[in-house]
Amino acid sequence: MKARIKWVEEATFVGESGSGHAVVMDGPPEHGGRNLGVRPMEMLLLGMGGCTSFDVVNILKKSRQSITDCYAELYAERAESEPKVFTHIHVHFVITGKDLSDKHVKRAVELSAEKYCSASIMLANGGVEISHDYEVIETND
């Protein structure tokens, strides 16, 4: 996996992934930024959220669950002093579908956290406390 980060101006950077997708990262005005894009630490949190969400949806589909929607809300706390690393991240999944099995949803969240989500496992191995919970919303469609 490769990535390239290019400084644009002040605190603005463009990151390009190995697959050719680009994203703007920027700092807040008090650090010379123009607030044009996400902060690098936000990007890290988004990456973890995307990784674990991908796992959960994939596992539920393979379990033949009728999932119609999934989103994850992530809440992160950071250290007060430098380096201001993440100290705790909580992931709350909201899974919507028809006749969803609570057992399957719980299993999907656990498998992502414990086995498949490389981003969250890497952060946890680095000392970040990561917790998860979920809610299931039934649809009649």
Helix and strand layout, with pairings?
Blueprint: E1 3-9, E2 12-17, E3 22-25, H1 40-62, E4 66-78, E5 86-98, H2 102-116, H3 118-125, E6 129-138
Parallel strand pairs: 5-6
Antiparallel strand pairs: 1-2, 2-3, 4-5
Helix pairs in contact: 1-2
Describe this structure in words.
InterPro entries: KH_dom-like_a/b, OsmC/Ohr_fam, OsmC/Ohrsf. It holds the Pfam family OsmC. This is Putative redox protein. The chain is α+β, with helices and mostly antiparallel strands and 141 residues long. It is 33% helix and 38% strand. The protein has helices spanning 40-62, 102-116, 118-125; strands at 3-9, 12-17, 22-25, 66-78, 86-98, 129-138. The strands form two sheets. The protein has a three-stranded antiparallel beta sheet with strand order 1-2-3, with no helix packed on it. A three-stranded mixed beta sheet has the order 4-5-6, with helices on one face. Strand 1 (3-9) and strand 2 form a beta hairpin. The longest helix has 23 residues, at 40-62. It starts with a strand and ends with a strand.
